[in-house]
Structure formats: structure tokens, C-alpha cells
Amino acid sequence: MAKHEFEQVEMTNMCAIIDQSTGKVLVQNRVKSWPGIAFPGGHVEKGEAIALSTIREIKEETGLTVKNLKLCGIKDWFEPDLDRRYLVFLYRTNDFSGELIEESEEGRVFWTNIDELPKLNLASSFLEMSQLMLEDNFTEFIYEIDGDTWKKKFY
Hints:
By secondary structure, this protein is mainly β. It is built from two helices and twelve strands; from the N terminus they run ββββαββββββαββ. The chain has one domain: Nucleoside Triphosphate Pyrophosphohydrolase (Alpha-Beta Complex), CATH 3.90.79.10.
């Protein structure tokens, strides 16, 4: 049996919270890392379950408690300079409760119409991620390196 070398991996999460009664989705105007409008989310802590990390991050950044998360897919890429893969586990839910806090250290959160997303000042590549999360066409959004070019691919 061949022996495989393990990759170093940084794991993160993101969740589209959809209010079915209004047709709106919760977004965050991120100010720390990856600036611009995106869905809330964050890092998976060492040893933490991925879905539970998403629930924790949403609570910290929005004040809302989410449940019944649906895994929509992943976004990933390999960072050659750091010799690691970066994974973003993408979820969506319409099952949430609690009182929304309008701002955290990560940025301001607010509801917006889903069809208005392309008109906002989005974080880099977030439009493609949101399509993967809100539609059921693909399960993976990856950057593949071809020489000096990073190509966006959906699978």
C-alpha cells in the first residue's frame, strides 16, 4: 500500500442564513480579514466539529443561534508559498433564533435581499461562493493553479 503525505490544512466555515418569510439573507460587512460583504463564519478550532464551529461562529458574530445546517459544499485552494490547503465548509440554514447583534469586531451584520447580493461591495470571490451556497448546481469551488494563473473551477 502506498504511503501518502498529509497536507497542512487551515479549516474555516461560512453559513448563509435565509429568512424565508422575507426572502432575505444575513450578510456581514467584514472589516478584519477578507474585507467586504460576505456571509458570517470563521475558523474551525483544533479538535472542534465543523458544524459546531459554524454554530459557534454564527453566535459570536451575529447573536443568532442556528440549527439544521445543510452542508452545501466546500471552497478550497492550495497555497504553495505556505505549503498548505485552505478549506471553507459552506452551509446554509433557514432555522435560526435569537436577537441579532448589529455589529461585532468582525463587522456590521444586516439583512439584504438575495437578488441584491451582486450589487453590494462583496469580498473577493464571494459572489461565486454565494451561488454555490444558495443553488444546488455544484459542491466544490476550487482555485486550480496553472503556472502563474489561478483558475476558478466548479465541480
